[in-house]
Amino acid sequence: MKKLFLGVAALLSALNMNAQAKENAAVETKENKEVNQYKVDEGKFMMEIGYVPVSAGSVNLPGGMIRGVYVLSEKIELKMGLNIGIEKEVWDNAKDGDQWRKDSERTAVFAIEPGFNYCFEGTNRLEPYIGAELAFGIRSYKTVEETQNNKRIVKNEIENEIGFNTFGVAANAGFNFFVAKNLFIGAEIKLGVEVQSDKKVTVEENGTTTKSETNNHEVEFAPVAVPAIRIGWAF
Q1: Nearest Cα to 109, choosing from 66, 81, 148, 140?
Q2: CA within 20 to 30 Å of 145's CA: 31, 111, 125, 135, which one?
Q3: Could you give phi then psi for residue 22, rounded to 5 degrees?
Q4: 131, 222, 109: which is closest to 176 by C-alpha?
């Protein structure tokens, strides 16, 4: 009789533990669903558009940025930033003969910034993160001065500014605040090292090309706010 009682007690205990485990799993699943009510699910792709009121670093596109982010897991995001832009200005006095003159200036910027983010749990709407990124960039210039009898082309220099190549490494921290499912705004700050080397200036005139022999470079370490406002969404 005693053995039967002990067997029934053990069976009831096992059933109770199983029920408790299922209840805990249900609660955990519910909590996870609440946490992910607004956040982006694993395997989704996000796009960000940022507004930068001041130029953040040498190769960042003044005024804006584009970044793609792949959500590898709940904690890890892979990202790729892209900064690209071309600005050109042309002046033509629209006169004839020897009085005609045309000047043009072009500035081109290209940069890519691969990296990753590590996301913390935060709340159901707020997602803080830290991360790291690399940056490769180019800024180039070109000016053309034309008259009826002459054409002068200067590459990689404009108004005493020299074109350059740049490489950088940075650590960053920021947050995303989800205003709706898969839709967020955020801010970010980063601290990094940037190495910049000047391009050689070339001048083409009257069939002759000359190239500067300078080899200037500089290293900069400074905190940079990037950017003031970010808007992102997931597909």
Answers
A1: 140
A2: 111
A3: -65, -40
A4: 131
